[in-house]
Design a protein that fits this description.
With about 280 residues, this protein is of the alpha/beta class. It has helices at about 15-35, 75-85, 85-110, 120-125, 130-140, 155-160, 160-175, 190-195, 215-230, 240-250, 265-280; strands at about 40-50, 55-65, 70, 115-120, 145-150, 175-180, 200, 235, 255. Helices cover about 45% and strands about 20% of the residues. The chain binds ligand C2E and magnesium ion (MG) (3 copies). It comes from Komagataeibacter melaceti. This is EAL domain-containing protein.
């Protein structure tokens, strides 16, 4: 456990540790059942093109509503799934669900251009990942350009060579590749420049104080410029305020994902949201 916390991060034993471990075991066993019984769901958060107001795509996010534990956020269960190896089953499930949903939207003529799926670092090191992606696309009959997979930079710490090989294979299939949470943790411009990314997502921590202070604005402006130089679509995450939306549009950000436009929602709510938008398109104020 302490080792997994990573370099430069220390964890000390304290009295509540055994309690936490117990919690963790309960969470892990309930999660195993939830995955087996197909009780996890996906919600979809719209991503809006700020220049045109058009829907760019949606991001699929896992939800777990446990009968005993209640709603467990992915920030809690994804790490447990990674530590217990359940992330393989969970990841395969969310990939399939998202592609089946995209096939459904295509069949019904619902205008959702792309669906983005989060991939854990562990999935990215799995030699089966590329054939798994190809199989799911083939079986659901979804064109590869309708799917985007998101990776984070923790993926590259372990094995850069492997990550690069997998990334190139994914792009060769025609699938989009997105760098999630850029600007946090192990972020580096070297990774951004060397990987064959189609998209970069600026982490939502940049949105704090974005409108008021000059420094954050300058940094975000620089990331947008670099992203564009590298031929990527730039998405800002966690946009909640109209001012943030306006500022981001002014400095050339392409797409916005955040509560300002919409929260993650189930497919029925997304249908309604899309219908309402057609009557009354939402853009920055
Ligand atoms: P992420 O991929 O960076 O997803 C964006 C997160 O930001 C989501 O949290 C979303 O609900 C939240 N968000 C979006 N707009 C706003 C906003 O305006 N304000 C605030 N405060 N938050 C906003 P969520 O759904 O709790 O997911 C957390 C993380 O869990 C995700 O971060 C992703 O890393 C991970 N995750 C979720 N589903 C999956 C999955 O199926 N597989 C894997 N590997 N990871 C997943
Ligand atoms: Mg993501
Ligand atoms: Mg993110
Ligand atoms: Mg994330």
């Amino acid at each position: 456990q302490a080792k997994k916390a990573g370099r430069g991060c220390y964890r000390f034993f304290h009295p509540s540790m055994s309690e936490q471990t117990n919690d963790h075991v309960i969470l892990a066993s309930n999660l195993r059942e939830a995955i087996a019984d197909r009780r996890l769901t996906l919600v979809y958060q719209p991503q809006v093109n700020v220049a045109t107001g058009a829907l760019h795509g949606v991001e699929a996010l896992s939800r777990w509503n446990d009968p005993v534990l209640g709603a467990v956020p992915p920030g809690r269960f994804i790490p447990v799934a990674e530590e217990t190896g359940q992330i393989r089953a969970l990841g395969a499930w969310s990939l399939r669900m998202a592609c089946e949903q995209m096939a459904n939207w295509i069949a019904r003529g619902v205008p959702v251009p792309t669906v983005s799926v989060n991939l854990s670092a562990i999935q990215f090191q799995d030699p089966e990942l590329v054939s798994q992606l190809a199989t799911v696309l083939h079986q659901t009959n979804v064109p590869p350009e309708r799917l985007i997979v998101e990776l984070t930079e923790t993926t590259m710490i372990e094995n850069f060579e492997q990550t690069m090989t997998t990334a190139l294979a994914i792009r060769n299939l025609g699938i989009g590749l997105s760098m999630d949470d850029f600007g946090t943790g192990y972020s580096s411009l070297a990774n951004l420049a060397s990987l064959p990314l189609s998209e970069v997502k600026i982490d939502r921590s940049f949105m704090k104080g974005f409108g008021s202070t000059g420094n954050v604005r300058q940094v975000v402006t620089a990331i947008i410029r670099i992203g564009h130089t590298l031929g990527m679509t730039v998405i800002a995450e966690g946009v909640e305020e109209p001012d943030q939306c306006n500022e981001l549009r002014a400095i050339g950000c392409d797409v916005i994902q955040g509560y300002y436009f919409a929260r993650p929602m189930d497919t029925a709510s997304l249908d309604t949201w899309l219908r309402q938008r057609r009557a009354e398109p939402v853009t920055c104020p």
